[in-house]
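Here is one such protein, fold included:

. . .
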Amino acid sequence: MITQIGDSIVPGTTDTGNHGDDVITNVVLPFTFTLYDTAYMSVNVSSNGNAQFTTMDATFINVCLPWHNRNHSVFPYWDDLRTDNLGWAGCTGYPNGLCGIFTSVSGTAPNRVTLR
């Protein structure tokens, strides 16, 4: 069963420094995140829309899942994307007028959420 929540997306405000084509940036998480019974304190975010917990692969292609070279990954915006600003008007609404990957933390412990 799928239930849609009523909250809106909160834009990130902290710049991770991920601005480019086919780049990976390590982001320290503000709290432990558990994926497949393993706790992580950081994640490698890709300009190609995926988050990798055990790899730093900048490959921009999409393949059928499961992708054994990318175990312990999530693919929320998986595509050949760019996070740099090449003069695109759409980037002006982001902090410092830059496209990129931004984070924020909402709530207080133990009910915090991090947004990307």
About this structure: The radius of gyration is 15 Å. The chain has one domain: 14-115. Residues 14-115 form one domain.
